[in-house]
Please model this.
Amino acid sequence: MKILVPTKRVPSTDEGVRIRPDGSGIEDVALAFIINPFDAIALEEALHIRERRGSGVEVTAVGIGNAAFESELRIALAMGADRAVRVDFDGALDPWSVAQVLGAIVRREKPDLVLMGKQAVDDDSNQAGQMLAGLLDWPQATFASKIEFVEPARLSIARETDRGLETVIVGLPAVVTTDLRLNEPRYASLPALMKAKKRPIETISHRDLGVLPEPKVRILHLEQVAVDRVCVRVADAAELVHRLRYEAKVI
Amino acid sequence: MSILVVAEHDGAHARPGSSSALAVARDLAAHSGERVELLVIGRGLAFVAADAARFAPVIVADHPLLANPTADRYAHIIADVAKAREAGSIVANSTTFAKDILPRASAMLSAAMAGDVTGYSFANGKLLLRRPMYAGAAMATVALTGRPLVITVRASAFPAAEPLAEPGERIVWSVDASTLPNHSEYVGLESRPTLRPELTEARVVVSGGRPFRTGEEFEKYVGCLADALNGATGCTRALVDAGIAPNEWQVGQTGKVVAPQLYVALGISGAVQHLAGMKNSRVVVAVNTDPEAPMFSVATYGLVGDVRQIVPELIRELGK
Model:
């Protein structure tokens, strides 16, 4: 069984992001990059499946980007991925072009399961997995918080929806996108990171895949959203209710 | 050409958020001269269709095989209808229903898509969309290439649509069962029945954080204050992880993004991930024992104190 885990390289935004004054993008000079946290959850789940099933499961991490992506793909190898593949591409991407490249990778690698994060924490689109499933005409299960095999080639998936927890069963091959509560990704150990430095990362040009990634969404401008309200400190519950009624008029 | 609004419904009524999607579609249509049509998909839709027709002509895809919202079948119907009606745009309310299904339909149509749209403008006749990125820390202005355009909108950012003077026409979409995909089997939905409004659609949201250590305690304070304000309940990730509140109540970057008229944060310190989910609320109230809690930096009104003491006082004051 082959599991493909597409990953995205995203800036670590724990400290918040700063937008360049001209609105052309984010200040990324001193920024650390990480594997998109939802993709790390997908990788962890793929490793789980391999551990539960024993032999015969191959986990391949895929990234689309320039050579800088190799450091994050090495982390994927150190976490336990069997292989890492980088599609060499240096231009802008959107969910549509990502889905097209991944579609070409799927035709080449022929995985039984594509496991990927429900969204990337940079553009927060939440589209690439669903688009990939649509292009391939494969089953999809999004926002997974539990994945179980009910048969060798059928998965039961608990999905987190606005209305509650939904359960669907999909046959393989399928695309499954992962939500936050599926698992806690493991850390790569230092020895594993050292070893991963020597392991090969397969590099394919997008031309060899026969796709030219052409985004349909163009980001024209970014601006910082600052919500710094001047907080009015109230003395007690009575003053708060009074202000909500007569000043803010929201109740 | 038409603008197709995919309406989400509960078997009886369209969800309130779909009305905001319709309001956006009407406005876009006023610029483009296209007609606006609603699409409802499901089984046993007579009532939903009649209700929806009060707002716009409605295309009704009613079939036993569409009883549950599975992405493969619903995306198939949406793509088919969009082609047949020559849809220039497809618009829906940004919920997990639309986030699951519309990107799939979009790929089937080779269409560009923008999600979570909170605003738009026209520059030289070209539509520019505004949508949040980086967990709401940045607002992007984006342009989409090609047609149709697929757009999901945040209901809280737009007004609701008014009904028409005369109900719209109901158009029966004949579903060809033999062409429907059969990719997934719907097992069921586990949800807590609640009489409170849905979190993303409520005018008032009352959220609780770490001080609440059990489900009963959460209900006694957060739930009761929400009921006194006719609001929805929300919570932080910590409470969901601790099993105190259900997943669908989580507000934040990885949970739900809300922007009600009033957001009351009870004992929530204000982690960046939580603020991303609520900071665009119109009025924010923070109640916390720690006067330095980050929540106060995004709050309109702040009250320093113990939620266990303050919530009963608030409920009493609201009753006056």
In short: The first helix of chain B runs from residue 16 to 32.
